Structure formats: structure tokens, C-alpha cells
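Forum: Protein Structure Q&A
Topic: Joint prediction for protein chains with partners

I've read a bunch of threads here and the consensus seems to be that you should model interacting components together rather than docking separate models afterwards. I'd like to see that in practice. Below is the full input, 768 residues plus whatever partners are listed. Could one of the regulars post the assembled result?
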Amino acid sequence: MEPTRTVPTRSRGRWLILLGILISALTLSGIAASPAVADEGGTDDPAAEEEYEYFFTGNVQFEGEALEGVLITVEGNGFDAETETDADGRWTIGVPEKAEYEVTLDQDTLPEGVVVLEGQDTVTAEFGLTKRKAVNFFLGEGQRVTVNYFDQVVQRVVSGLNFGLLLALAAIGLSLIFGTTGLSNFAHAELITFGALMVLTFGVNLAWPLWLAIIVALVLSAALGWTLDAALWKPLRRRGVGLIQLMIVSIGLSLALRYTYQFFYGGSTSQLPGATLPSDIRFGAVALSWVDLVSMGVSIVVLLAVAFFLLRTRIGKATRAVSDNAPLASASGIDVDRVIRIVWVLGALLAGLAGILWAYFRPGVSWDMGFQILLLVFAAVTLGGLGTAFGALVGSLIVGLFVEVSTLWLPSDMKYVGALVILIVVLLFRPQGILGRRERIG
Amino acid sequence: MDWGAIFGNAAVELISPTTAAYALAALGLAIHFGFTGLLNFGQAGFMLLGAYGYAIPALKLGWPWWACLLTSLLASVIFALILGIPTLRLRADYLAIVTIAAAEVLRLTFTTNEFAPVTGSANGLSEYQRDLLTLNPLPDGRYGFGPWVFSDRAWFFLILGWIVVILAALLTWLLMRSPWGRVIKGIREDEDAVRALGKNVYSYKMQSLILGGLFGTVAGIIFVMPRAVVPSYFQPTLTFFIYAILLLGGAATILGPILGSIVFWVLLSFFSGFIARAVEAGWLPFMTQVQAGQLRFILVGVAIMLIVVFMPQGILGNKKELAFVK
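Posted by a regular:
Agreed with the consensus. Here's the joint model:
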């Protein structure tokens, strides 16, 4: 079956047409005149109409013209039946009991250029005091774009790449922190949220120009990373607090920060400027907005910069050395604490940037937005191999692609489930992750 | 300020079924984390399986209470096996990530509209207690004294809950002084040493994961008995609260989780009651009622951090028996 997508046109008013008519003499005479048509297409029982005392009726018209041959189905209470509208656009379906039913208008049987308003092609109907119930569908002018399966896959893949790249920004920071300090930082989610909240504060609440707000947000994110390390993590390392304890401290910190955000920003979702731009740039089958393009571009540039930093600069090499073996790095004259401080600043900066991009991807800024993707970030890091920066990138792309592409066959409210299941399955077969090394897994 | 109401509400938490449920879930976590050193962050998932494993057969199949209970326990064992087989051979933090992920998978699966006819989706399920209530020996009506005046139904669930908690604590106590318990504690201290003694560490860890998970499952049933079940109860935050309780009471103790749960809920109720009324009375003009409600979560987060750093052994724990794996 070919999936279809409904795109109602926005500009012109939707003609709310129609509908159902009701308990008027007109309808009654209509039924009387054409009982066969009304129940054509068939219930299990061809004589349904005479047998059942309860009826759903309606009249499907668009701009005053009756639409013939539109398929209507009724389902519920263990009963289902379908019918097509007659030449006058009328339909009637008899049902056995006075109960609640779902009445659906099959959009594919509507003429070209006509759609049911989004999400209203199925109506839940219940009988009132009478034995007849009119069911109305609101039709509008619109385009029903039938996207073929391949094009849908391409669209999802591009979207998944975008999501994967922004996940990678957060994941690399998490992975670097894990690599250098051994800490599984659950509060990384709050670093993600922080970036978006700061843009909201400066760009929307204080109405600064967006570019300035983003720069300020990134600087503040980096400052938060510095502060967290200086005020919390470094003293704890000094005390020699164990890794598991540190992990639980990060959970406590995550909880405290998250609800502090809610305390100040409330539980609602706000939009950043430009978050709702239409997707009007087309590359073949793929429709993107400017924000999507900029987001992917920024992610790629920043990821390349991080790769350059890790591979080519002295500090980057020192970071990898500390990741590999901190005591040895320390013995070779590397200031481990300084490297860790830099990693915290970098990690928080990347997380803040990921948060801003995530606010545009969702779209929306809310107090728990980081926590919503924390597990995906963890899944990405674990998939790639705990503590390997490039593994985090590979893992993120896989998770991002999987989440988006899986919406083709999974309901969208379960799209994160697939990625988390993949995580569990991968650990079963390759526990060190895709780029990880065996000795790390203990 | 109505101090009577604040203290009264806090006193109710002292014996409420919710306190019992959290105590039992924390006791399960004590077996995982305190005694075996397993970092299970999916206790909410075990509780969810308990709640839905009971509610779904009761509502959709009309099974008696004991069959529903068995369904829950069976689901819990299967869940523990799925979690344990890939991760128990790996380092501790892998189990943490996988358990929290698996618990989220469960919660999302029970939230999705796809399975709404069975799970009730985000609206959840209710009225599954009927068969268990036929066992209620208490006469109809409301009785009690002081702040503890409940209906016969509430008393029934409360008494049942605490009986289960006491039995579970006894069982844990017996187990932990048995040879099995000594092996378990040995695994926490030094896995390799236990392996060198010829014990199958993997199998012991799995048994511990299953047992603690079963406690969590029964806790889930106790938790949803006085109310309706919705999937949003079982967010990762629930697991974090249970960790807070466990760490507060003492991770490697039997009575710690129970005491921790009581102290946690009484203090939390007292604190939020006090703040809410202080806001009402205009003592905290910068805060709204809604914000006052969120303050408790911030407090729990800060409390977790402080306890872990400054009092890792908890109220009842022994500082020598440090409850943290290296």
C-alpha cells in the first residue's frame, strides 16, 4: 500500500463544507429512494439496513457539489461495515447497537484537490436520543501529495542525518568527559537544555538579535562547563570519590538543575525565532527549511573543527592521551586537571550548541528537552564505543538515522524505542561498541 | 499557618501504601546495588511490569488476583533475563545504561496509542482491584485515629502492603546471612576473588537481578493498588527517587530502605506542605504555588548529591562496609 501525506493548503480559506444532514425529511426520502446504494460495498450482511435500527448518515459535498463514490467505513464494538456515497453525495450505514463507533472517510476516494482537514478523517460518533446520527466531515481544498516509498525514505534519511549530527555534538562532549574522567554524566541533558534556554532568554525574552543571543548562549554554556568542573567535579576528584558515586552525584545534579529550569521557565514549550519556517527548499524529493540546512552545515563544520582539534593540536593530542591512560599522560608532563577543565568547557559548549539545534529540530524549547534525548545520546556513545570520540559520531549518525527512518514503519510516538532496542541488541553482540576496543569493557 | 494539617499530612505518609511500595522497591534495589553492586537504573521498569502485569490480565481476561500476580512475576523474570544476559558480563555502567534504556522502552510502549485497547495508552487503566478486594476482611466505613483515618479499602491495601514489606525484609535478612548472601557480597567487594573460589559470578549476579526485580515488581503492584495506573508514573525520575531513598537509609542494609522511605516521604510531605502554605501566607512573595511544588524535586536532587558525597553509607549503614563498587 502506498502511504500518502496530506498537505492542506494554508493560504485560501478552507471551505468547511459539508456535511451531514440529518434527520430531515430530505434524507429520509433519499434513503428510501436508494437503499441499495446506501449499503453497497458491503457489510457482512447485505440486509444490514433493514435489520439494524441505528443509522449513521451523512452527505459529502464540496463547494456545493455532491461527491459520489467516496468510501465511508464504520468500525467499533466488534462490528464493521463500509459504504460509498451515492450520486447525491449521501451515505447511510446501519449498526446493530447504540454505542460508540469510529467513522472514517477514505481520503483516497476523494476527487483530486479535495482533502479532509488534517486528522479529521476519522470521527468518533455516538448516538444521542434518536436512532439516527449525522456524521460530518470537513473538507477543504488541498493537495494530497502521494509520496512514493523511495522518496519518503530519502526524506527520512536526510532528516535522520540532521538529527544524528546534532546528537553527535552532544555525544562527543559526553564521550570526551567519559574518556578523560570516567564519569557517565547524566547531567549532560541539562547542559543541552541550557543552551536552548539561554537563546530563549536573550533572543526572545530580551529580544536581542538572534546571532548575538546564540553567541551569548554558547559563551554561557562554556562558562557553565567551567563552573561545574571548578565548583563540583574537581573538588570531588580531589576527595577521591568513586566513579559510581560521581555518576549518582550527576543524577542528583541533573534532577536539581532540571527542576530549577522548570522553576524559572515553567512547564510550557516556547519557540525560538524562525523555528517554524516552512520547508520550502526542495532537492528532488527532499523538502527542507533554511534552518535545517544551516543546522546541518553548522554541525558538520563544528564536528570537523573538533576532529581537527583532537588530531592536530597539542591540547587535542593531550586530551586523547589522558583518555587513553591518565597516569601515564600525567607522568609525561601533561597537566591532567587542565585537560579535564578544557574537556568540560568544550563538552558543555558542544552540548549547548546541540541544545540550540535540537530546539529548532523538535521544534520548541522546554525545561526537559535535553532529558528527552539524553538516552539517545547515551545510546549513541555506547553504540560507538564508550570513551571514543569518533565512535560517538558514528553512533550518533546511526541512532539519528534509525530514529527517523523507523517512523516509516513504527508509530511516531514509539520512534525512540527502536534506537534503544538497537542499543541493547548491539551490546549483546559487540559490547565494546562499533569503534571501541575490547579491554575497555572490563 | 495550619501546622496541624502540615503535620497531619506528613504523619499520613509515615504508613501510607506509597511509602510501603517505595520501601519495597528500594529493598529490591538494595539487593542489586547495595549487596551485589549491580547498577540497576531500571527499577521503574520492574515496577511498571508489576502494575500492568497485574492490571491487564485482571481487566482484559478477568483472571483472579493470584493469576495476575503470577503474570507480573513472570514478566519481571523475563525482563531481568533480557537485561542481564547482555550486560552482566560487562562493566557496571553498561548495566546502568541498558536498564534505564529498557525501562524507557517499556514506558514508551505502554504510552503509545498503538496498543491503547490493551494498555489504555497515556490514560492508563483503573478498576482492576475488584478480585483482590473480595478478600478484604475489614467492615465497611472509615475509621482510625488522629490523622490516620482511612476507608476500609485504604486500610486493606495499607496493611497488605506493609505485610509484604516485612516479609520481604525478613527474606532478605535470611538470604544475606546465608552462604548465598555471602557470595553476593563477595561479588560486590571483589568479583575476581569470588571467581577464583570457583563460583559462577554471572549466575549469582543474574539471580540477584531477578530477585531484586521481583521485589520491584511487587512494589509496583502495591503502588498502583490504591490508585489507577498510568505510564507516566514510571519515568526515570521514579528510579532516581528510589535511589535517593536507598542511599538515605543505607544501601547495604535491610532496614535502611524501609527507614529511608519513611524519612523521605515524611520529610518531603512536610517540606512541600510547609512551602505551599508559606506561599499561600505570602511569606515567599517571589514564588508561585506551582513553583513551590517543583521545589521538592530540586531538594531531592541536592539531597542525593550531598548524601552520596558526605554520607555514602546512609543513616543505618556501616562506614566500613562501603556500599560502592570501585
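The first strand of chain A starts at residue 5 and ends at 8.
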